[in-house]
Amino acid sequence: MTTPTALIPAQAAARLDDYTVVDVRTPGEYASGHLPGAHNVPLDHLRAALPALRTAAARGTLLIVCASGNRSTTACTDLAAAGIPATTLTGGTTAWAGEGHPLHRPDNAKAVWPMERQVRLAAGSLVVLGLAAGTRWRPARRLSAAIGAGLVFSAATNTCGMAAALARLPHNQPRTGDLHATLRALQG
Predict the structure, then answer these.
(1) Full-prediction pTM beyond 0.85?
(2) Distance between CA atoms of 164 and 17, rounded to whole angstroms?
(3) What's the N-to-C CA distance of the chain in angstroms?
(4) pLDDT single digits (tens) 101-121
């Protein structure tokens, strides 16, 4: 398996029209701002999108984007395993916007918190809950310890089980019609 090709935002911006941009963040994150012309295929729907992505890749290079570059690198690796070449945007939309490149925000799209913020809220709430409940029932403090251990494991492995679980919540899921429309657009 090959290592995914990576571009920095300036390189991608210089040739943005040459790429089919695929944003693998959740629909809420996508709605909060994405690269111009990007198609939203959440990472957990990537396998279902393989035929459409294969067709799009046959027409030109796929540029895979997420918030920071982690999910897009995972997506590129999964695509490479399926025989579909793709390039990732180093630093994701965060780096893109940080360098002053425009983000598109659809009219009347409801933005949700970025996944990292959702994870911080969930983890922090569970830690506080464990500590508060632990004042009355001592074993409840184990919840706080488990969340802390999970965060350490997440940092060490550059994965996040909590983010994977939160991505399955309804507000982070694409509407079926939206995903089908995206797949039809990718098949061109």
Answers:
(1) no
(2) 31
(3) 28
(4) 999 987 766 667 778 888 899
